[in-house]
Amino acid sequence: MARANKEKEAAVRMKMQPKDYAFSFFNYLVFALLALLCLYPFYYLIINSISANDLSASGKINFLPEGIHLQNYKDVFKLRGLSTAALVSVCRTVLGTVFTVMASAFLGFMFTQEKMWHRKFWYRFMVITMYFNAGLIPMFMTMRTLHLTNSFWVYIIPAIVQPFNVIIVKTYIESLPASLMEAAEIDGAGILTRFFKIVLPTSTPILATVAIWAAVGQWNSYQDTLIYITDQKLYSLQYLLYTYINQASSLANLVKSSGSAAAAANLAKQQTPTSIRMTISVIVVLPIMFIYPLFQKHFVKGIMIGAVKG
Question: Is the pTM of this model over 0.70?
């Protein structure tokens, strides 16, 4: 099999004309430049967060780090409430992702079942919510009526059902062989049996796609904390770091004043608004960047299969 594939590849290479090589080279060059443009902002954040703070503040760090040190991270991790906020963000990301994936999978499966009561009405009703919403004030009043303000569950419950996720899961399930479901139904399998033993195992690519979207959305969200939460124990990491970025100047002065005299004399390690912003941005971005490559294979496959029916 491997030998046959190699022979096919060799045959294709032999048939390629010079213009084909030029076209391929141009494509690789363009996509390499686009990849560099996408990666450079993250690289810029990292090198400025570990470089000498006086050079970073003056805008002299653009391509290579200078005066490398990790004092910025040591100082930022000492900020009050950071560990609690990190725990809240991790919990909301894990729970929110699990609930969103399960709800998207089950609703997507149910909307493919013709026996579902008023299936078309509920599906269209859900789709309408993608285009119309009540607005911020009615939403806040609803959350307060449901006693979800100043509650950890305000991060989870409103985000469980995402219409777009349900739609792509439904489209993916419709692409599965109908005979698979029919055979299970003939054997006496109920709705839940078919869902857990057939749909979930065969829908890994699209569910991994939904998991990435849900995890990124939960991890990066801070507006729900801003609107619904006043209890500092429930602050998410992103909201806490958002407030620190907005207060970077005063925070830099606070870190300076709390440091030792020797550290204060070292201009390269004195905290500046720029160093605070860069370091906090790296802390927010890195965790989700490490998680994404683990799901990339399923992500690409899920998008391709879930987007096209048939």
Answer: yes
Residue 116: its H or E element: none
Residue 227, domain extent: 82-233
Q: Are 168 and 206 in contact (CB under 8 A)?
A: yes
Contact 53, 270 (CB under 8 A): yes
Q: 119: closest CA among 128, 129, 108, 130?
A: 108
Contact 267, 68 (CB under 8 A): no
Kindly report, residue by residue over 39-71, the tens digit of the pLDDT.
888 888 888 888 777 777 777 778 887 777 777
Report which residue type is found at 93: T
Using CA atoms, how far apart are residues 103 and 105, in angstroms rounded to an integer?
5
Q: Can you state the percent helix, strand and coil of the chain, rounding each to 5? A: 75, 0, 25
In this structure, are 268 and 255 located in the same domain?
Answer: yes
Q: Which of 206, 207, 189 is nearest to 198 (CA)?
A: 189
